[in-house]
Design a protein that fits this description.
homodimer, 338 residues, alpha/beta, Rossmann fold, seven-stranded mixed sheet, 25% strand
């Protein structure tokens, strides 16, 4: 046991643009045993999310920035290896901010034991029964407030969150149009997930295609991207439209300030709203969300895709897939077997 | 009677930047008598508003643009001179889109008879019991939703709408900080209207002064201006802040596209909202608003100032005071005596 090594990625520089290898330092440290009230957990999977990039930047956001020299912050799923805390029995599966490392020694703050369901793969607890599912569900239903018969547009539609948002939109009776990068992603949205239409922003004129695919205008827009796409949607919103502002991934890696949308004044003539939200505010309502998602999953109404990268050592390069748009579905890193 | 002349300003060119004299043509036409169901009204006052500039631009907004060659659209107060319509008796005072002219021949569509109160000057029906009062009242209370103890910031604070917004904010128990251009306007806000503080954007650092005057952050922002001021406020909003987007006067006269705020992503980490509104949506609730405004006026809690320009002929130049920021309070043009 004393030979166990905790491999870690520590953040040692503030990234400029995409993450670079030199922003991280690989460290190997001996694994300590838990003291009174502590547990030792072993990471099984890491969740890679756009918000990792925000956390690496030296700004106070909804969480403080990761300190230089600290293990990079990240969500994960882990198994309790040793426990001196009865709330986390040995063998339990936990989720929380386990970090970019093999092991975490902790008193359990911020971790929660997952009620693992038989037959459901562990990755479903990253892609669906997770902050991703909560973000899609509450961001769309609580902030976007879609009504049956309305038109919903979602950007980053082939991403982990966007792909769920569009499917939930279909479930509540909306016409759903996704915006994604590349023909393969767009085919997946329409042919497998049941979107009414998809727009390939890399090869198509987004403004023209929005008009074509949203003949009655846009009532709800779920925004993951920002920038020019937000501007294009603002130009075609209906009266009383709701824009749920989940993320603006087009800006996270920007090296110079990115101006906001030119069409913001359309919010006035359209009596429309842009509203930001943070998934942390909905944690207390997880059961409500996961019950619906589970029901829809069993009924075959909800699908998810996991983009799995193997090995902690590949984490710094894997995360840039989010910003290059080369992932489809939930991006995760497999760290170890259960 | 047949000698009466209807002097008019017709829009003959789309303005670039501020209005120029050459955007309008002065026309004098004989006044026609009303036919069946028609009335002839004589303008007493015109209301000059930032939205006039929007209407002159060739874009579909919440109203269609004024056609080239048409009498310039504008709100006004008029007296019924001749009537073949029992809903509008001779001598009644009406308000509505009477246009930049002496007389309007109409079936009365869009006009409403005003219940003129004794002792209340006619200009109060432009500055307070009007679209201005409705905009301030419902924009603040219905969209901004201020709570006692919260901090309210209002831009364009010495304008017709902004000056009411700040006073209503005080009435509902907010700390109120106004942003206006020039020391005289700022003194008026604090010394006469009871604002807690005012920031002179022409001579002070708005960001630094916002931090100083809003030590607990900003909960509600009533936006009349847009541009850099919106960005500065976005940087200091609190969680769950509400931005009521009334206007963006800094952009109406722009000759090149104006980028939106750089700090828009702050809406996410602050779970905050920007919401546009149009006063037309609140017309049906006028009574509710005017009852409160009247009560507050009588109680000395609400003051308004009228910036009165004399003569229809001066209208095209007078309206640019709004964009140059040289008006204080409600800008009106006196057309004729009652």
């Amino acid at each position: 046991m004393s030979e166990r090594v905790n491999r870690q990625w520590r953040l040692v520089a503030r990234p400029v643009g995409n993450f670079k290898d030199s922003d991280f330092e690989w460290r190997e440290e001996p694994v300590q045993s838990p003291g009174d009230g502590q547990i030792l957990v072993r990471n099984l999977y890491l969740s890679l999310d756009p918000t990792n990039r925000i956390w690496a930047t030296d700004i106070e956001s909804y969480l403080p920035p990761v300190g230089l020299g600290d293990v990079m912050r990240g969500g994960g799923i882990a198994v309790v290896e040793e426990s001196n805390n009865e709330k986390f029995p040995k063998g339990a599966i936990v989720q929380g901010l386990t970090g970019w490392q093999d092991y975490l020694l902790t008193d359990g703050a911020g971790l929660s034991v997952m009620p693992v369901m038989p037959g459901v793969p562990l990755t479903a607890y990253l892609a669906l029964f997770s902050h991703i599912g909560l973000t899609a569900y509450f961001g769309l239903l609580d902030v976007g407030k879609p009504q049956a018969g309305e038109t919903l547009v979602v950007s980053g539609a082939a991403g982990a969150t966007g792909s769920l948002v569009g499917q939930i939109g279909k479930i509540v009776g909306c016409r759903v149009v996704g915006i994604a990068g590349g023909a393969a992603k767009c085919r997946w949205l329409v042919e497998e997930l049941g979107f009414d239409a998809a727009i390939d922003y890399k090869s198509e004129n987004v403004s023209a295609k929005l008009k074509e695919h949203c003949p009655k205008g846009v009532d709800v827009y779920f925004e993951n991207v920002g920038g020019e796409i937000l501007d294009a949607v603002l130009a075609v919103i209906n009266n009383k439209a709701r824009i749920a502002l989940c993320g603006m991934i087009s800006q996270y890696n920007a090296t110079t300030p990115v101006p906001g949308p030119y069409n913001l004044a359309n919010l006035i003539s359209r009596r429309a709203r842009i509203e930001g939200f943070i998934v942390l505010d909905y944690m207390a309502r997880s059961a409500e969300c996961f019950t619906d998602l589970g029901k829809w999953l069993m009924a075959g109404k909800l699908k998810y895709r996991v983009d799995e990268v193997e090995g902690l050592e590949n984490t710094p390069r894997a995360i840039n897939k989010l910003f290059e748009g080369t992932n489809t579905g939930k991006l995760v890193v497999k760290i170890s077997d259960l």
